[in-house]
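User: Small ask, check this?
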Amino acid sequence: MKRLILVLFALILFSGCTKEFVKDEKNLVDHYGYAERVLYELPEDWKDLDAREKTIERYEKYLTGLTFFIDPGHGGEDRRNKSRSGKVVEADVNLYVALSLRDYLKQAGAKVILSREDDSTVDLGYRSELANKSGADFFISIHHNAPGKAEAYWTNYTSTYYHARPENYEYEPADQDLARFVQRDLAYVMDNPGGLGSFDGTYSDYMIYPGDGFSVLRKTEIPAILVECSFFSNRLEEIRLQSKEFNQIQAWGIFRGIGKYFMTGTPKINFLKETSGLKNDTLTLHYLLEDETGIDPFSIKTFVDSVQSNYLYDQGTNKLTIELANPAKGEHMVRVICKNVRGNHSLPYHKKILVK
């Protein structure tokens, strides 16, 4: 009898403690009978409209005027990816999250372009082409994942991808910076881990396709990341993904990560054309590196025609100098990378220099 009373007390206590964060949307039932409720927490800065608006207002001055190209993966003729029960179609969930993210970004003053706004077919290669022609500043592709082995239905984590690896010339550290911010806040609001293949939940797309990566990251010419929000194949996650409210929370995590990334700032690389030029068979290029928090002098890298080059940097004036002796006539591609003391790298900087 005493044991029964304790069990009943525990059930009452559990029920009382979970009322604030357990959502029950039409009493969704797991196909496998493991759960009868959709379990997730409402973020403190999202759960009421006032808190939501204050958060958006906090990021507004950093996002106003920026243009984001949002790419909801799959759709139209590509609706193959479904949960085991068939109740979750990845293409649909990708779109729901993307539309919510669009609304948050627009409310914060950003411009948003989508590769699709409904269940339409957009060829994989055309997504990058659209982004490159759009004039957007950043590209974010939204997906949900499934394990390589269908029977691994317990697998579930959040991951965010960037293109290439640090040792590769095509790697842009700014992509990984943005991926880290988005990954952290998205995983946090979803209460998901980042997987065991990465320390912080961000991954190079070369882990999936060595030396090649994802098409949308490889072919997109602006800073780009791809988010795998969670595994729709997971027997419990598919319950949450059926909730439109949960999809909005997913988008909120991505939005918050974007906002925090821009609050941290990125260094500016300014070419000083008036003091640069060719003299005595030496091409001298001057740049001014600007960041209100300061430049990390050990982070600077310069390349000429994809080959790492020497440079001089004056910490007092923040001036960077690159000298090329006897440069060949024609076009040369100059690339500069640096980061601020908060750890954010400069956005991709590639400039063509013509030697006559």
User: Anything to note?
Assistant: The domain at 268-355 is CATH 2.60.40.10 (Immunoglobulin-like). The first strand starts at residue 22 and ends at 23.
